[in-house]
Amino acid sequence: MSSNNNTRTRARRVAITSAAVLGGAVLALAVPTMAAAHVGVSPDELVAGDHGVLTFSFSHGCEDSPTTSLRITMPEGLASVAPTLDGDWTIDVERGDDGLVSAVTYTALTPVPIDLRGAVSMSVGLDEDTPSSLAFPVVQQCVEGATEWTQLAADGEDPHSLDSPAPVVTVAEATADGHGEHGAAETTTDAAAPVAADPLPTVLGAGGLVAGIAALVVAVLAYRRRA
């Protein structure tokens, strides 16, 4: 009878240990996935008075629901907007009373699954007096639900701390030769460059993994003391 009780006790401890390890692993994997969800823009810097192609990329944003459309609102200070024709999307252009493009909606012919990266692009022209920062609020519509990427960081606030930040492009002043600090060639080629990795998901993932390991150590020590 005592042997059976000991066997059940050991089995229960093993189950607790396994659950602790599994919980830590799930946290390590799930937290970065949640934190990495956002709509990014590349390049994130243009030159006043210049032209450039902006690419808006996204992954999941409505939990487990595929993305069906992106509605991007144009900020003031753009002289022209020309969405890029893409066979995977239909494009709807809205214009204001001044005739300028006020919003562009890209609707996917087939909903974009949560495990795939999607992207849309447009050519924009800037005025000489374009503001130093251009925010592009985005509404990501999904099969179920939607996410509004519209938050803007206050002065001194880290944009990575926001839950749903809007994509932002910094505008550099044009120099005497008509280019910005980094030159026109870099402005055009950066459109194809990958978006810089956000360090926050890595930090959170490491924290989840450490939590799982700590739970395993505690469970093993408890098992050894009671065995």
From TrEMBL:
<feature type="transmembrane region" description="Helical">
    <location>
        <begin position="203"/>
        <end position="223"/>
    </location>
</feature>
<keyword id="KW-0472">Membrane</keyword>
<protein>
    <submittedName>
        <fullName>YcnI family protein</fullName>
    </submittedName>
</protein>
<dbReference type="InterPro" id="IPR012533">
    <property type="entry name" value="YcnI-copper_dom"/>
</dbReference>
<keyword id="KW-1133">Transmembrane helix</keyword>
<keyword id="KW-0732">Signal</keyword>
<keyword id="KW-0812">Transmembrane</keyword>
<dbReference type="Pfam" id="PF07987">
    <property type="entry name" value="DUF1775"/>
</dbReference>
<dbReference type="InterPro" id="IPR006311">
    <property type="entry name" value="TAT_signal"/>
</dbReference>
<feature type="domain" description="YncI copper-binding">
    <location>
        <begin position="38"/>
        <end position="171"/>
    </location>
</feature>
<feature type="signal peptide">
    <location>
        <begin position="1"/>
        <end position="30"/>
    </location>
</feature>
<dbReference type="InterPro" id="IPR038507">
    <property type="entry name" value="YcnI-like_sf"/>
</dbReference>
